[in-house]
Design goal:
Elements: H1 2-11, H2 15-33, E1 48-50, E2 53-55, H3 58-63, H4 68-88, E3 94-99, E4 120-126, H5 129-141, E5 148-153, E6 169-172, H6 184-193, E7 200-202, E8 205-213, E9 221-223, E10 230-232, E11 239-248, E12 260-263, E13 268-270, E14 274-277, E15 287-297, E16 300-302, E17 313-314, E18 326-333, E19 338-344
Parallel strand pairs: 3-4, 3-6, 4-5, 6-7
Antiparallel strand pairs: 1-2, 8-11, 8-15, 9-10, 12-13, 13-18, 14-18, 15-16, 15-17, 18-19
The protein binds S-adenosylmethionine.
Residues 50, 55-56, 61, 64-65, 99-102, 106-107, 125-128, 131, 155-157, 173-174, 183, 187 line the site of S-adenosylmethionine.
Length: 346
């Protein structure tokens, strides 16, 4: 059953098929663990507020599967990253660290139908015991324990690899659009410092860009040709690109000295400030949008409106934007991770 749902999720020809497969996967795992919206177990509804952002409750994390374009792209990306790691590290069992696996470990369990336990082993890590227990219950029920090196309850922001453990692939999806609220950046910061040479980070790249958009002309959609999410009818759009705001890769923290304390009291750490200039614009009907593009791995990319995590975020409090204004913007790691910005008029 798992193999059949996984195949449909990975190869689904259209939205409806992928959505159905994602919902079936959710219900299959939920049936084994009882992690579901109406659960009476209080642990299922407990989120954790960390110094670097919010860790979703087991029920909310479980629901992420249903964002089928996200799940499908991540599954395909992790599968291809494991294949790439096999080429980079021949004759080795690929070790994958899955930080923030949630109660269903959906970026691991379906892939056991594509590999053998001799080819890949996962270390599952989550801050919530209930999530780890749930993932373990699914894995034991489906007799997949050979694929698991360890279950670790820890904070991925500070977790140190034990001696002798050097994962080839590191997976973490602990993000929302515009990298707000959840600790993706802080987790990436910690784990990539310890990554082995040639190791692969998933997602490979997350890019935030700023643009001006006329919202009256922004929201016209049609189903994507590849069956994954929907695409906007581009011709109707009016957008003006302003430039890149922030990029997260395994290399992002090479120049750590450029990050600075924005506020010592709440321990907020900011990336270098970028200054983006608004050109001359004819009409005053443009708002500021932050676009999030997630390159999971190679060609597995989530763009505008394709998944919740890649939805454009409107900076509505800035109102309509004037010609020649300047946007000063940086990314901050702290209790409320996300972009910090101010708009200066010409
Ligand atoms: C957005 S959910 C994703 C769940 C699942 N990986 C998926 O792809 O559907 C994020 C998960 O990461 C966990 N998490 C968030 N921050 C964490 C941290 N600092 N350390 C460990 N786990 C964390 C949450 O508890 C939650 O289970």
């Amino acid at each position: 059953m798992l193999a059949e749902i996984t195949a449909r999720l990975l190869q689904g020809e259209n939205h409806a098929e992928s959505l159905k497969a994602a919902a079936e996967l959710h219900d299959f795992f939920s049936g084994i663990t009882q992690v579901r919206a109406g659960s009476q177990n209080p642990e299922d509804h407990c989120e954790t507020l960390l110094d670097e952002g919010k860790a979703l409750s087991p029920v909310d994390a479980a629901r992420c599967i249903l964002d089928y374009a996200r799940t499908r792209n991540f599954l395909g990306g992790v599968r291809d990253a494991i294949i790439e790691a096999q080429q980079r590290f021949p004759e080795q069992t690929i070790q994958a660290l899955y930080a923030g696996c949630g109660p269903f470990a959906p970026l691991m369990i379906p892939l056991t139908t594509e590999f053998t336990a001799g080819q890949v082993q996962f270390t599952l890590l989550d801050i919530h015991k209930r999530s780890l227990d749930s993932a373990r219950q699914i894995i034991e029920t489906l007799e997949l324990s050979d694929f698991v090196r360890d279950y670790v309850q820890a904070d991925a922001v500070s977790y140190k690899f034990p001696q002798g453990f050097a994962p080839h692939v590191i997976i973490t999806e602990t993000m929302q659009m515009a990298l707000a609220n959840e600790p993706q950046v802080a987790i990436t910061f910690n784990l990539t410092q310890q990554m082995r040479a040639g190791g692969i980070l998933i997602p490979q790249q997350i890019t935030l860009r700023a643009c001006l958009a006329d919202l009256k002309r922004e929201f016209a959609f049609q189903p994507a040709a590849n069956g994954s999410g929907s695409t906007a009818i581009m011709e109707s759009r009016a957008r003006i690109e302003l430039g890149k705001v922030f990029e997260l890769t395994a290399e992002s923290f090479k120049e750590q000295h450029l990050w600075h304390d924005a506020n010592e009291a709440d321990r907020t750490l900011c990336s270098p400030v970028r200054v983006l200039r608004v050109p001359q614009i004819a009409e005053q009907t443009f708002s500021l949008l932050i676009l999030t593009e997630v390159t999971v791995f190679a060609s597995h990319v989530l763009g505008d409106y394709e998944a919740g995590i890649s939805y454009p975020k409107m900076l509505s409090e800035l109102g309509f934007i004037n010609s020649h204004a300047r946007l000063e913007i940086c990314y901050a790691i702290g209790k409320q991770p996300g972009l910090r910005y101010r708009l200066l008029e010409a």
